[in-house]
């Protein structure tokens, strides 16, 4: 009777973890719904429906995450929001 040795290979898989940053938009008493909607469509590539939903959430909840992704992608988008007079930050 022969014995076969079983070899279990362990494979190490390197996982690259990317921190998904978020742009958070905050409510203010200055900007209109139309301005916020148009700016979200321009700066964050939202559809009109997405932009409207985010503007409603910001209005009633005080803040809303409007975009997630890599910091390098979010930085210019957040800058566009700030230049338009909106209150936003990357977290």
Automatic annotation (TrEMBL):
Q: Which GO terms describe its biological process?
A: protein catabolic process
Adaptor protein ClpS core domain: from which residue to which, for each copy? 18-83
- What Pfam families does the record tag this protein with? ClpS
TM region(s), chain numbering? none
Give the protein name, as stated in the record: Adaptor protein ClpS core domain-containing protein
**Species, as recorded:** Mesoflavibacter zeaxanthinifaciens subsp. sabulilitoris
